[in-house]
Write a structure and sequence with these properties.
With 271 residues, the chain is of the alpha/beta class. It has four helices and 28 strands. The longest helix has 16 residues.
Length: 271
């Protein structure tokens, strides 16, 4: 006997037009809109709402009261058919919200593969997120934010719109970022500051000791040496950089709408 294509609870509402992949499970009282596309083996718990032009990759698990693909929280939205695209094997925990894009900014919010979104985290319109990202409880991502692979954010962190966060960065809990965070950077505090490198993350990712030293030296030269930031960058010859230094250099010299987090100043001595 052939197994059913999907296991849909009788109280769930799956509107005509929705595409439900083989092996999906949709729990009690969940609502799936007419433009939603679910890949194979997606598990949806009870009381989930997925609406709009939303695509969810195979193997994702979505927990109760998550709301995905509803209208962007933007006063200029006028009902345009924009998209939310979520990659494979993501875990989206209770009460997470994600919005599609705005038509004047490309019209897409994109989330990569193997990401973990903990309770109450929010991904706003037009964000572009890479793979293997972890947003802890109550993390708030404003619109147009770009986040690289393997980024981890502590609980309650808030990211300003148009900020870029480089891969393997770490954002401390209950901190904010109003400016870009370099790859491998560690930020903390309110207002957020660059407090060092995510050395633990670098080691876990297989970076060698010399590579970590190269990054540390490069960051110190760019952010802490004399002269202006612009002058320090102008003095760098990219052809002389190691691969990991060039990685950070390319991020810094790319288009930035928000500038970069400042390095935390050393505490003043007490007389």
């Amino acid at each position: 006997m052939r197994e059913p294509v999907a296991d849909i609870h009788p109280t769930a509402i799956v509107e005509d037009g929705a595409i439900i992949g083989e092996g999906c499970k949709i729990g009690p009282y969940s609502i799936i809109g007419p433009k939603v596309k679910l890949g194979a083996n997606v598990t949806i718990r009870s009381h989930v709402v997925i609406d709009g032009n939303t695509t969810i990759g195979s193997g994702c698990s979505i927990f109760s009261h998550a709301v995905l693909g509803t209208e962007p929280q933007n006063i200029h939205y006028r009902g345009e058919d924009t998209e939310l695209i979520i990659g494979k094997n993501c875990q989206i925990r209770e009460s997470v919200t994600m919005n599609p894009g705005m038509p004047d900014a490309g019209g897409k919010t994109v989330v990569g593969d193997n990401c973990l979104f903990l309770v109450n985290s929010h991904v706003a319109h037009d964000c572009i997120l890479g793979n293997n990202i972890i947003l802890s409880n109550n993390v708030m991502i404003a619109g147009h934010v770009e986040i690289g692979d393997n980024v981890i954010m502590g609980g309650g962190a808030g990211i300003h719109q148009f900020v870029r966060i480089g891969h393997h960065a770490f954002v401390g809990g209950v901190s904010n970022a109003k400016n870009d965070i370099i790859p491998f950077g560690m930020s903390d505090g309110v207002p957020g500051e660059l407090v060092g490198l995510n050395v633990v993350g670098l080691r876990r990712a297989g970076y060698e000791k010399q590579q970590i030293l190269d990054i540390r030296r490069f960051v110190k030269n760019v952010f802490e040496s004399g002269g202006t930031f612009k002058d320090r960058l102008a003095d760098i010859d990219p052809s002389q950089l190691s691969e990991v230094e060039k990685d950070v250099y390319d991020f810094i010299t790319a288009d930035s709408k928000r500038g970069f987090l400042n390095v935390r100043s050393a505490p003043k001595s007490q007389d």
